[in-house]
Amino acid sequence: xxxxLHFFVLLSAVALTQxxxxxxxxxxxxxxxxxxxxxxxxxxxxxVGFLALAALWGLSALWINSNNEGILxxxxxxxxxxxxxxxxxxxxxxxxxxxxxxxxxxxxxIAKLRK
Amino acid sequence: MxxxxxxxxxxxxxGLTWALNSxxxxxxxxxxxxxxxxxxxxxxxxxxxxxDAFPAGTLDIPGLANPVSxxxxxxxxxxxxxxxxxxxxxVQGFLHAKHRLWQMDISARSAxxxxxxxxxxxxxxxxxxxxxxxxxxxxxxxVEAWKEYPEDFALIEAYSEGVNIWIDRxxxxxxxxxxxxxxxxxxxxxxxxxxxxxxxxxETLGSKNQDLExxxxxxxxxxxxxxxxxxxxFPQQRPVIPAETIWDFEPVPIETPLEADTMPMxxxxxxxxxxxxxxxxxxxxxxxWALAGSxxxxxxxxxxxxxxxxxxxxxxxxxxxxxxxxxxxxxxxxPGIPGMLIGFNEQAxxxxxxxxxxxxxxxxxxxxxxxxxxxxxxxxxxxxELVVEVIKVRGQKTVTDTVRYTEFGPIVYSSPKHPKYDLAxxxxxxxxxxxxxxxxxxxxxxxxxxxxxLQASYSHHQxxxxxxxxxxxxxxxxxxxGRLPVKTPGQGLFVQEGNTRANQWNxxxxxxxxxxxxxxxxxxxxxxxxxxxxxxxPYYFNGYFDEYRGRLVNRLLDKAQNVRVSDVMxxxxxxxxxxxxxxxxxxxxxxxxxxxNTNQLGLxxxxxxxxxxxxxxxxxxALFQVxxxxxxxxxxxxxxxxxxxxxxxxxxxxxxxxxLNNDPTLVYWDDLRTPEREGPVELLTxxxxxxxxxxxxxxxxxxxxWGKQWKLDINxxxxxxxxxxxxxxxxxxxxxxxxxRNPNGPSWRMIVALGPQLEAYGVYPGGQSGNPGxxxxxxxxxxxxxxxxxxxxxxxxxxxxAERSSSRIEFTTY
Lengths: 115, 814
Prior knowledge:
The complex is a heterodimer of chains A (115) and B (814).
Chain A: H1 2-17, H2 26-36, H3 42-67, H4 71-79, H5 85-114
Helix pairs in contact in A: 1-2, 1-3, 2-5, 3-5, 4-5
Chain B: H1 2-20, E1 24-26, E2 29-31, H2 34-38, E3 57-60, E4 68-72, E5 78-81, H3 85-112, H4 116-119, H5 124-132, H6 135-146, H7 150-169, H8 177-182, H9 191-206, H10 211-221, H11 223-229, E6 285-291, E7 302-310, E8 312-313, E9 318-323, E10 328-333, E11 342-345, E12 348-354, E13 360-366, E14 374-377, E15 380-383, E16 385-391, E17 399-406, E18 409-413, E19 421-427, H12 439-446, H13 450-458, E20 465-471, E21 476-481, E22 496-497, E23 516-518, E24 524-527, H14 549-559, H15 565-572, H16 578-590, H17 598-609, H18 620-635, H19 637-643, H20 653-662, H21 680-694, H22 696-699, H23 706-709, E25 711-716, E26 725-729, E27 744-746, E28 749-753, E29 759-763, H24 781-786, E30 790-791, H25 798-804, E31 807-812
Parallel strand pairs in B: 3-31, 5-9, 8-25, 13-22
Antiparallel strand pairs in B: 1-2, 4-5, 4-31, 6-7, 6-24, 7-27, 7-28, 9-10, 10-11, 11-12, 12-20, 13-19, 14-15, 16-17, 17-18, 18-19, 20-21, 21-23, 25-26, 28-29, 29-30
Helix pairs in contact in B: 3-7, 3-9, 6-9, 10-11, 12-13, 16-20, 17-18, 18-21
């Protein structure tokens, strides 16, 4: 339950702030959410950060790509060693996820330190 | 322990975030900041436009006197409905930026010699050459001159403001994709940027020069051979202005004739100078023609134009319509410049082709001092003006280059091989404009009568163009328009001595003396970059003129009767070449077929059956082109071996064919690389066998044809392959009307049928959007490749626009 709550709070916090803040702020935001809403275990925090950001970045890219009928993803994929549009979306999701996971983990560790 | 773990994780997180926010190098490629680039909220995903989205909405923009409506048709062509010209160009600036901002930015940077600011060291030498050529200086001078025409300058400023209104609205996530890839931000647009675009056009069309190479060649060959191999006129050509034209004016006399011994200067110019010399591309040119009503099915004129330029993505052209109370015009703009360069209004149409007149000459400056700053002109000691050019280089220290300006122009090249002298470049584009320049094309948009056309043409100075005009009254007119120096015969062919003012350009051909024609008896007018006028025109004309396309256009137009638009479409896509028609019979005449094997005889048979059309699906054009090319190299082997010592010029195809057909004993037939002595039979037979050998691999493919041989690349402006269209199989030939030669070709094909039911058709190899993430990025290339056209939607009024458009933006003011 705490996991799901954390997931949605993190996802919405980043989604809302990304429209006006620089891209990298998702890392401190993930940390902040983890510090405010900590639950059990480093691994779980890593996982929730990863899943929330991978979902946000991946689904956003998927949505944009389907409206664009893959035109741009095809071309950008060619720039990156011939990645297919679907692979490009997966790379986007993993990249976002990794940063979210690390941010979340940092936040959790800082929160634990204060106890 | 906990703290140590935390520090490690924090370090990894911070390091990774930092790395993903930085430009990294991976091998040879510069990567954009990957985190930013992949973020769906900031990076490239934001440039992936919905395929069914059209710009729509209401926008408040500052500075408009009245509201402006913009209707987009299904090809994303904006149709601007405004109450005044100044409102229209303000919105036009906004629209050009909206669809082509990165193209505008990089083109202006390239012209100014400021690429290294964003691209780093790799473009430093390109920038250095641009600075030495005085592009930035010339553009600054132009802006100063434009200010003397406040009414026109206000339009240029309004256009710049329109661009900036768009830029100011952009959040970094909205930047065009290329800014994100190269990780820089757009800068504010100014009239100087527009002037740089104009200078860049002058450079493309009016900077061809081979004085250095010609000087070396003449010193090597001697005068007699030089004149034989490099004739200035070509008797079979028909000039742009009909030959029977009478010149009823007194030409400007040349006050100070050149001293015979200063010209031409016959000293070898030494090895390639520094910076490296640019090569002028082959295949830049244009066709345009107008048929009088007597030759058309409708009884009204038809005008056609296809300018041949380097084909790029985004395309150089942008289609738009400007509808005002005082006129209604449709045409193609150069993004960065207000108005439109080629187009039509409700009464008339206009087109342009390049005049090849030589307007760039080189002068040898001999230095009197060790610092190379003092030179003598007519016995007087003069000091060169030193201008320090500051070139910012991304990721490196700023580079400075001191350019020395003499009375003869800036010193562009220097070489340690000749420390005592340098070469100064006199170029027409350095001159302060004598008009607002913008005026010509603004006037064209509202020109209805022949008188309007003449008025508009007078304000056009550079680059010199053949301006073609036709209207619904039935007039067809053509004018060679531009500022051209009065030269003594032979002046400007070779490097001249920069030690006397007698060698300078002291006068210019008065605009009313430039050749023109109105409603000639032949019922058509055309220009395909051939000579402007017959040899009896009272001024010396020399330069770079095409010999074949014009002959074919005239031949076809002479026969044309009851012409319809569809006939003109076929003609613009015509791949027939008089070059092949003139060359192939002579080549086959000398070929000794007894030396050929069965396979080679088969190839010869294909050539015999060929109809001289360079069509993609045919095999013969590939055989011909390779055979001719090898023959050319074998014939002119002396030139290729000379090139290793000094840069030289090479004989034209027309001269080569003249020698092939009429001069079998010329000394050059002998191939000096072989012990035996060759004549036409040996050379053509050998070349044929070499052709069959060199094409052996290709000919194994039964589907091999001209299209597979003559591939076309339409490259992205930053040469990013993923944003380019490469290896497209195409027909065409630079000496055919469909003048395709990689990477140049017909950059816009337009046909306007005048009359009460005006109809216009057009297509260019690109798309209206400059965004590789848009469905409109390259949407017209297929049609262009197939020779198909779009019917241009020319809305009479806002009601028609509202009914037939796909979307609409309302611009309101505050």
